[in-house]
Amino acid sequence: MTTPQFALGAMSFGTTVDRDTSMALLDRFAARGGRWIDTANCYSFWADPSGVGGQSETLIGEWLTARDGVRDRILISTKVGQQPTAAGKWPESAEGLSPAVIHAAVRDSLRRLRTDRIDLYWAHAEKRDDPLAETVAAFGATVRDGLVRRLGASNHTAWRVERARALAREQGVTGWTALQLRHSYVHPRPWAVVPEGGHRLATAETLDYAASEDDVDLWVYSSLLSGAYTRADRPMHEIYDHPGTTRRLAVLAEVSAETGATPHQVVLAWLTGGTPGIVPIVGVSREDQLDEAFEAMELRLTEDQRRRMDQPV
Length: 313
Description:
Number of strands: 8
Largest sheet: 8 strands, parallel, barrel
Helix content: 25-40%
Radius of gyration: 19 Å
């Protein structure tokens, strides 16, 4: 497996991040040695007048084609399952994870990305109306047919991922070896409902599962909470308003001062350097944000700093 330190989140590329800026960010990412770009077939349907996605994959495909040799150095992560089948009617119109959808969607993604393979293909979110055994078989077929190299599950419970992996073994097909969830240094209140539809949070059980399974990588999105750690104009949602957040932010400020790193860099170092090692997906709209993430990969927290961050008092 090729495990990155962080993946570039391309969700907004081609919509709220315009074409020229997106291309410049991709150039910068490749020039600095970045490897993984994360997107989805539905990105970003909510930001496009059409009401359906594909803009991010299309822009990435344009970039891959325009830059000689870059496809051999860049790895592509994309997803299926949440593309609206009717504009303005998501989530009820989400395409789901039936074999017919997966069979068609993987080829549509390859066409938009202008490539012959997807390096990591995710089930974007659970769709329990679709029989899991059929979903597993369809994903396995994408690998068998040479369209996909590796498989993962996003926004799935750990027990359902493990059941799917068992089904893959029974069927003799390639199974999921990556799990993608929402996770950051601060956590919402227990049982709080996350306002963004479809998001599933990492839990202590998830972290233990990923740490215990040698062939399962954990990727996380919303790792920097859209800049809320540092931007007064983007306050944290009220679900984070509890004493645990107060304690964690105090320790984060201490470690940031001790290291001379930004709070974002400390959070990224905490995520990537722990157990399990986590792959944060970092979305950016400016080159300085991208540089900040690369510099975070050089930061090593001391045992004392990590202990204080893990157990703030």
